């Protein structure tokens, strides 16, 4: 099992080396995959992995799609369309010529159709390779000296590694200060909430004093001090009355 794994890894390593070499030579991904598939068969690397060698990310940023994937979809679309046409042609031949020429059996027609399909596919592969290389190098690629509009500010504000590091440090410092400000704001919010609670209690006490003042005015006193004095006298009278009542009750019991 380990020997098979090592052999598989060695094949993958060789294929990646071939991919990097052909990519450097400017060979399109689909053509690379076609050449390698002819050599490695089912062990060939997937075409999308071949595309990842040169992902053309800057072009994808501009067009909104990956140019290599675009070409691959065109290639697959033509193959599907060609296969569909071959099936239609085969069906027409069976319907039209079966009664005229009995020697044309479905097996013979299918064999001829497959040969014609292979012939057309080979011709298309050759032409598509040229078209793909031309489109990827001229139409669907951005020259290295061209900067996209959204990246213009990078040319205007070009920073060295040291300046970029200083900018990063400044941003980190600002983030720490912002965090401290947010903590201070949270503490102030908590203190403000406590002050609101205390204010509510004080307002309740003031309302209580206002109620006492109103009661005093109703009783004929001028201010809160006089109200307390009158309240004290009334309380003393009540205490004396209660004391007298208790004395009388004690005498009656005796």
Polypeptide structure, described:
Helix 5 runs antiparallel to helix 6 (106-139) and helix 8 (161-218) packs across helix 9. By secondary structure, the protein is mainly alpha-helical. Helix content is 81%, strand content 0%. The protein contains 9 helices and no strands. Residues 164-191 form a coiled coil. Its main location: nucleus. One of its GO terms (biological process) is cell division.
What is the secondary structure topology, with strand pairs?
Elements: H1 2-24, H2 29-40, H3 47-51, H4 57-63, H5 67-97, H6 106-139, H7 152-156, H8 161-218, H9 224-253
Question: What labels describe this entry?
Answer:
Centromere_Mis12; 81% helix; coiled coil; 254 residues
Q: Uncertain segments of ≥5 residues (pLDDT<50)?
A: none
Shape assignment: elongated
| Structural class by secondary-structure content | mainly alpha
Say how many strands there are. 0
**Overall mean confidence score, pLDDT:** 78
What portion of residues is helical?
Answer: over 70%
Q: How large a portion of the residues is in β-strands, by DSSP E?
A: under 5%
Largest sheet: none
Rounded to an integer in angstroms, the radius of gyration calculated over CA atoms is 48 Å
Count of discrete alpha- or pi-helical segments spanning 4 or more residues:
9
How far is the first residue's CA from the last residue's CA?
A: 117 Å
String of helices and strands: HHHHHHHHH
């Amino acid at each position: 099992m380990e020997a098979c794994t090592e052999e598989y890894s060695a094949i993958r390593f060789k294929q990646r080396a071939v991919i990097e070499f052909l990519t450097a030579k400017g060979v399109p991904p689909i053509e690379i995959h076609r050449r390698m598939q002819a050599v490695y068969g089912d062990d060939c690397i997937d075409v999308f992995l071949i595309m990842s060698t040169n992902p053309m990310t800057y072009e994808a940023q501009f067009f909104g799609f990956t140019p290599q994937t675009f070409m691959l979809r065109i290639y697959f679309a033509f193959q599907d369309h060609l296969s569909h046409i071959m099936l239609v042609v085969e069906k027409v031949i069976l319907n039209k010529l079966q009664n005229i020429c009995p020697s044309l059996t479905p097996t013979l027609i299918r064999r001829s159709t497959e040969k014609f399909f292979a012939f057309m596919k080979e011709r298309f592969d050759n032409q598509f390779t040229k078209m793909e290389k031309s489109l990827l190098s001229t139409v669907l690629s951005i020259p290295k000296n061209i900067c996209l509009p959204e990246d213009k500010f990078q040319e205007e504000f070009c920073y060295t590694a040291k300046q970029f590091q200083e900018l990063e440090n400044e941003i980190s410092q600002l983030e720490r200060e912002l965090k401290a400000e947010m903590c201070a704001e949270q503490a102030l919010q908590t203190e403000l909430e406590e002050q609101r609670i205390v204010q509510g209690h004080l307002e309740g006490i003031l309302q209580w004093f206002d109620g006492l003042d109103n009661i005093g005015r109703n009783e004929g006193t001028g201010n809160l001090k006089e109200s307390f004095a009158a309240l004290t006298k009334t309380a003393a009278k009540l205490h004396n009355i209660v004391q007298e009542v208790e004395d009388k009750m004690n005498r009656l019991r005796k």
